[in-house]
Design a protein that fits this description.
DNA-binding, homodimer, mainly alpha, 9 helices, 207 residues
Chain lengths: 207, 207
DNA sequence: TTGACAAGAATGAACGTTCATTCCATCCTC
DNA sequence: GAGGATGGAATGAACGTTCATTCTTGTCAA
C-alpha cells in the first residue's frame, strides 16, 4: 500500500475526491455507492485515488465529519453573537437549512448520517460530539429568551432546548422528504411560541 | 424462477423471513445487510428463501411497509378516539415511541427508511402516503385544542401541526442517537405549549 | 400394513457480476 | 533521469440469485 501523501497539492486532490464522493453519497447513500461510482464521478483511476485515501471507510468518515461541521457552522453563524430573540434565531436556522438543502444537500446527507450512526459507533460518537455545542447554544438561547419575557415556568431550559432542537431535526426530515418550506415551518413555530393564554395580545402581530 | 406460493403455511414462512430480515436491517441497515446475513438469521438455505420472496428488494419493501404501518398504528392508537388535550396526546405518542424503540426498534428502522426514501422513489411514496393521515390527525388535534383554550392566533393549524409532527420526528432522532427519554422531552413540550406570549416573538429577522 | 408414487419443501454448490483493493507499467515534471 | 503522479488491468472475496437434486410428507392401491 502506498502511504498517503501530505503535500498541499495532495490536499487539493483529496478535496476533489471528497466533492465527488459527496455527490455520490447524496444520490445513493453510503453503502449503495461503490468505489467505482466515486472513481467515475471524480474521473480518477483506482490506483490514483488510493494514493489519497486508504479506503472507502476513510472517505465516508471524512464526508461525515465535513457534513457535521457544515451543519454546526450553520447553527453557529446564527447563534454566535448576542443571541437574537428565540423565534428569529429559529427562523434563521430554518432558512439556513433550506438554503443548504437546495444548494449543497447537506441536510439530506445529515439524514444518512443518522442512519449510519445507528450501526457505526464511530459515527455515532462524531454525531454526539457535534451536537453537544449546538444543544448548549439552544440552552443559552432559551435562557436569554427568558430574560426577554418568555417564562417557561418551572420547566428547565435544557428540556425546552431539546424540543426546539428536535423541531429543527423534524424540519430537516420534512424538508427532505415532503418538500416543506422554511417559511411555513417558521409560521408554525411562531404559532407555538406565541401561543397566547388569552386572546388579548394580538398587538404583537406580524409584518 | 419459482412462483411464490400463497398457502397459509407459506405466509407463516414469509413472516419468519421478515422477522429475521428485520433484525438484520435493524443491526446493519438495508444495504449493509447481505442476503447471507438474512439467510443465516432465518436459518434457511438460499433456494428455500427464494421460494417465498422474489429478491432482496421485495424483502426491503415488505419491511418498510410493515414499519410504516407500525408507526402509523402507534399514532392511531393515541389519536383515534375523541382527541385528548394536545400535550397529553403528544406525551402518549412519545411514550409509545419510547416503548417501540426499546422493544421492537421500530423508530430506528424509521430513520433508516428516511435515508432510503431519499434515493428510492417507491419508498419515498410509501412514506408520503403513510404520513398523510398522521398529519391530518395532528391538524384535528390542534383544532380541537383551540376549542379547549389554546388559540394560536392567526397561525393556521396546518402549520402548527407540521411543527408538532416535526418535534416527534426530532424525538425519534434524539431518542435513537442520544438516548433521550420520553419524559424529559414531554417536559420540554409542556414548557413550550404553556409558554405565555411574548412581544419579542416576532419573526421579522432577515438573513 | 406396506410399498409406489406425487408434490411441496428444502438443500447447497455453482453462476455471473460487482465489490474494494492492489500492482505495476507508463507518464509528466523538475 | 529520478521520483512523484497517474492509468488501468488484475485480484480475490463477496454479492444476489439460480438450479439440479434430495428430503419430507401424504395418498392410496394391494
Amino acid at each position: 500500500m502506498v502511504p498517503v501523501s501530505h503535500s498541499p497539492a495532495a490536499d487539493t486532490r483529496r478535496q476533489h475526491v471528497l466533492a465527488a464522493a459527496r455527490r455520490c453519497f447524496l444520490a445513493n447513500g453510503f453503502h449503495a455507492t461503490s468505489m467505482q461510482d466515486i472513481l467515475r464521478e471524480a474521473q480518477m483511476s483506482p490506483g490514483n485515488l488510493y494514493r489519497y485515501f486508504p479506503g472507502k471507510d476513510a472517505i465516508v468518515l471524512a464526508i461525515v465529519e465535513a457534513t457535521l461541521a457544515e451543519v454546526t457552522a450553520a447553527f453557529e453563524q446564527t447563534l454566535l453573537d448576542e443571541p437574537p430573540p428565540l423565534l428569529q434565531a429559529l427562523t434563521e436556522i430554518l432558512r439556513a437549512i433550506e438554503r443548504l438543502d437546495d444548494h449543497e444537500g447537506t441536510p439530506r446527507l445529515a439524514i444518512q448520517i443518522w442512519g449510519e450512526a445507528l450501526r457505526n459507533p464511530a459515527i455515532a460518537s462524531l454525531f454526539a460530539e457535534a451536537i453537544t455545542p449546538v444543544r448548549q447554544w439552544f440552552v443559552h438561547l432559551v435562557e436569554a429568551q427568558r430574560h426577554h419575557g418568555l417564562t417557561s415556568g418551572p420547566v428547565a431550559p435544557e428540556h425546552l432546548a431539546n424540543v426546539l432542537l428536535g423541531a429543527i431535526h423534524g424540519f430537516i426530515v420534512q424538508r427532505a422528504l415532503l418538500k416543506l418550506d422554511a417559511a411555513s415551518y417558521a409560521e408554525g413555530l411562531r404559532g407555538l411560541l406565541a401561543a397566547p393564554a388569552s386572546p388579548q395580545n394580538d398587538a404583537s402581530g406580524t409584518s
